[in-house]
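Board notes (copied after class):
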Amino acid sequence: MSPTSYFRPVTALIFLSLLASCGGKEASKAPPVRETIPVRVLRAGAETTASQPVQYSGTVAEGSGTTASFQVGGTITELPIEAGQRVRKGQLLAAIDATTYREQYNAQLAQQRLAEDTYRRVKQVFDQGSIAETKLVQARQQAEQARASALASYQNVAHTRLYAPIAGYIGSKQVDAGAVASPGTPVATIVQLREVKVNVAVPEADINRLKPGDPATVRVPSLGNTPLTGRIDVVSPVADAQSHTFQVSVLLPNPGVQLKPSMTAQVSFGPAAYRTGSAAGLVLPLRAVQIDERGRHFVYLVQGSTARWHEVQTGDLVGDGLAVTSGLTTQDQVVVDGYHKLYDQAPVKVLASN
């Protein structure tokens, strides 16, 4: 065998060995299989506890009202009203015995006529130049005083009948027929219910977010919790000394007069639902929104079987959530659990979705 023939098999073996060695090194450089991370997601368009505005307890009160009382005293002879009755403006509420006041008026009226007759006689004599002008002036003053006294007596007679100063409902009746009424003593309260107020105690931490004219949503349990839309009328600038809460009054239309004073209510301020496309945007649980080293707020979205890093714009804290004002659509799947291990383009497996 020639030397050349001898080395050919050896060279082939060495070449195959080198190929095998190179192949092993290439195999060792292949990327490892990435771990699939289990996550839970929330669909951006779904209602969640965090997406509900904070609710406060409130009490329904009349929109406006007044107390009706006599300006003169006497025994009540008429009281044709009952609590809850609807009354129109100018309707008779009560009357007192006017006998004494009529007699006083008749006496004053007689004095007025006498004084006016005396003045006419004195004036005739004065016109003839028979008396001094001072006599005429004195007679005229006496006639005017008598006229004023008669008018005052007439007003007392008129005030023996009490009429409704406004239209509304009798909130309460505080006297009965036969009782003696004193001037200024309340006889009945009249409340106006076409528009009512809901009074709410708001903590000091939240009061600066509210201002007159802001929208409010009211739910009354006794009326089935149907959402009713109102607006803030008054925000008290002074806190209660003991509770450190501020009173906020919400005006609410009441066309069917179903809302009654003292009913309990639940009130939330701002839009009724915090969803993408609304003024407040979507509200996500605080844990779902993160901040990177550049101060950007972001979430992880699930697309297919991959997590994607996604920047969002945020707003105020709402309850125990954070408002996301832009960057999401109602179909986005936002990771709310399992985000700690995530990175952009990480493989994921959705365990549960809402």
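Comment from the instructor: Residues 1-31, 272-280 have pLDDT under 50 and may be disordered. The domain at 55-63+193-269 is CATH 2.40.30.170 (Elongation Factor Tu (Ef-tu); domain 3).
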